[in-house]
UniProtKB/TrEMBL annotation:
Reaction catalysis annotation: a 2'-deoxyadenosine in DNA + S-adenosyl-L-methionine = an N(6)-methyl-2'-deoxyadenosine in DNA + S-adenosyl-L-homocysteine + H(+)
Name of the protein this chain belongs to: Methyltransferase
Gene3D superfamilies for the chain: Vaccinia Virus protein VP39 (3.40.50.150)
Molecular-function GO terms, alphabetical: methyltransferase activity
DNA methylase N-4/N-6 domain boundaries: 131-384
Domain of life: Bacteria
InterPro entries tied to this protein: DNA_methylase_N4/N6, Mrr-like_N_dom, RM_Methyltransferase, SAM-dependent_MTases_sf
Assigned EC number: 2.1.1.-
GO terms (BP aspect): methylation
Keyword Transferase recorded: yes
Classification lineage: Bacteria, Pseudomonadati, Pseudomonadota, Alphaproteobacteria, Hyphomicrobiales
Restriction system protein Mrr-like N-terminal domain residues: 10-96
């Protein structure tokens, strides 16, 4: 790495990890080489001098000391005996869940980067006007809290608006936003929250995000929940659909449905082979011209229903996590979901950003399809598990 210094936020996580590995309080000078190893710092950069006025300093070590001071101000490190330092309980927690204001690049590939930090901080690291597609499945507003940090219905819309307010300027002039949102049941009754509708209205009214089209993801393997209403009282059916909304600040975002054509049915292949349909008028009054649908366009235009079972149980990702004692992300979606929209709404080498990266499924699909990608995630263990999706 050809740098003589690093941002404090970039060095803070390696510094906390180095202090944790020492298991006992340590002087900052004892941690320099450990931190340098963690960020794979070249030796010449490690030793490079920084001239400030008449004084010469080791640029890297100076940056580590600044990171130590910032960690102290944030309550992550505290002085101990003999000019040594130790982690606080808050610092221990920061090794698993990102602190506000801290964004660290955990790993990169040929086409992408996995960022450890809260999405509202990570988005500030991205150039304005550079993202072609923001695709994500944010935490849903659920009744039962999950470890990945879902919000309750009452505060969800305000929270989401604060997260999304910086997205518009990051998009290209023809960029899109696609969000996957599940239903939220009201506590104690078999009725649904209208948070999705409220969110869509405010996204347009306050952020200028226009609704391009609604999609639904059908998961045939969906569990019959809420159990109280579906399997016990049996007054509701299994909710196998989740909503996906395609939005854009542009009224003409890039899209190409030729990139997501589906195979023709046997009956359609016969129509093409026979030279098209016979002229007729349908019961609804539509006129079918003689020879219509005779051209083979390579496939059929798909509908806005995406069927993809979420049945992953013994994948390489799951085995990787179990072998390393890492938690398996509990809210993964199948690769078919982001693949559909990445093919539909982006071109080769376009940039895809997933602000709620989870186990990095979106990044892995983007890389496989020849797109560039950035994913942010505030749970470090989920990023470490997501490494399994990349060579």
């Amino acid at each position: 790495m050809a740098r003589t210094f690093y941002r404090q936020s970039q060095l803070m996580l390696p510094l906390l990890e180095a202090l944790e590995e020492r298991t006992t309080p340590a002087k900052i000078g004892d941690l320099y080489d450990i931190v340098a190893d963690k960020i794979d710092l070249a030796d010449d950069t490690r030793r490079a001098k920084l001239q400030i006025g008449a004084n010469s300093y080791n640029g890297f070590e100076r940056s580590v000391r600044w990171a130590q001071q910032r960690a102290k101000l944030m309550g992550l490190m505290t002085p101990a005996e003999g000019r040594t330092w130790e982690l606080t309980g808050k610092g221990q927690g920061a090794l698993r869940k990102a602190m506000p204001g801290m964004v660290v690049t955990i790993f990169v590939t040929d086409r992408g980067a996995a960022l450890y930090g809260h999405c509202e901080d990570a988005v500030g690291m991205i150039d304005d006007g550079s993202v072609n597609l923001i695709f994500s499945s944010p935490p849903y507003p659920l009744l039962r809290k999950k470890e990945y940090g879902n919000r309750d219905e009452a505060t969800y819309v305000d929270w989401f608006l604060r997260i999304a307010e910086g997205w518009g300027r990051k998009l290209t002039s023809d960029g899109s936003v696609v969000i996957n949102l599940g239903d939220a049941w009201r506590r104690g009754e078999p009725t649904l929250s209208l948070y999705q509708e409220r969110l869509l209205i405010r996204l347009e009214d306050e952020l200028g995000m226009k609704l391009c089209q609604r999609f639904a993801w059908q998961n045939p393997a969906k569990m019959p929940v809420p159990a109280e209403w579906v399997t016990i009282r049996r007054v509701r059916v299994k909710p196998s659909l989740e909503s996906i909304f395609w939005l854009s600040p542009s009224d003409q975002p890039y899209a190409n449905n030729r990139a997501i054509l589906t195979p023709y049915s046997d009956s359609m292949r016969k129509v093409i082979k026979d030279g098209g349909q016979k002229g007729s008028t349908s019961p609804a009054g539509y006129q079918k011209d003689e020879g219509a649908f005779a051209r083979d366009n390579g496939g059929a235009i798909p509908g806005n229903l995406i069927t993809a079972p979420n049945t992953e149980s013994n994948s390489h990702y799951i085995r990787w996590c179990k072998e390393r004692g890492l938690p398996v992300h509990p809210a993964r979606f199948p690769a078919e979901v982001p693949e559909h929209f990445i093919k539909f709404l982006t071109r080769a080498d376009d940039l895809v950003f997933d602000p709620f990266g989870g186990s990095l499924t979106t990044g892995a699909v983007a890389e496989r399809l020849g797109r560039r990608w950035i994913a942010s995630e505030c749970m470090l263990d989920y990023i470490e598990g997501g490494r399994a999706r990349f060579a």
